[in-house]
Amino acid sequence: MNSNQVKKKVCAVWIIVLLIISAGAQAQSRVPPFETVNIEPLHLAITYHKTTNLVFPYAVKSVDRGSRDVLVQKAKGVENILQVKAGLEDFEETNLTVVTADGQLYSFLLDYSREPKTINLEVGKYRQLNKPVARFLDAGDNEAIVRDVAEQVAVKKTSIRKIKDRRYEMGLRLTGLYIQEDVLYFQLELGNNSNIHYDIEQFRMYIRDKKKAKRTASQELEQLPLQVTGNTKVIRGQSLQTVVFAVPKFTIPDKKYLSIELMERNGGRHLGLKVNNKAIVKALPVK
Question: For residue 222, which of 256, 259, 253, 249 has the smallest C-alpha distance?
């Protein structure tokens, strides 16, 4: 084989290699850089003379209207009902975007109708099992996740036994303390060994001073729950029940403690627990 034949074969090999590389590059260029999922908007007709009520399974966190020709507001004193109305007759088609506290995004295409067929609409009833779209800056904002974890904590076995108060045939006990993300979950057992129902007036948590100096006002910092799971209205006679308080994470400064108070309406069978910082920092992960 002479040198010219060798050169021709080498050139042929290089041409084949270049063709393979080029084909691979073209194939890769056809692969989308990321996966997209289309969220189909719901068509909704609204009118100028009537208000349309949209009822969501969780609190409305964010609302965006595509046009000023549409009027939108939350129902007074309610977090999960959105009221929509046309601010102008025969407006051009626009859109409405709603994000709820469970991380779901709802998209609507709004059209004008003089006589809409529906003015009260329950939205998202069967979407609650879908993966959330929104991710909140504060983990506690996602009510669905907090509620789900609280329900898991409610059925866990007792892991704390010594923090309790028993009086007047009543019992209050901290049976578990858990942490998930930035939320603490207090598992509390409420017992009534009497035959008289216990109507709950207050069930609160405060951080208090261990010792109150004379003529010195002590500061009390209430820990407001994100979610309460269980019955906090009544403890029926001869019964035992569990309540879970989901609270934003915290620790307790020196010379202070967490007070959990249970007070009876029109009665005197008040109960209380003292929880120190040692118990707080030993909170278990929710598995």
Answer: 259
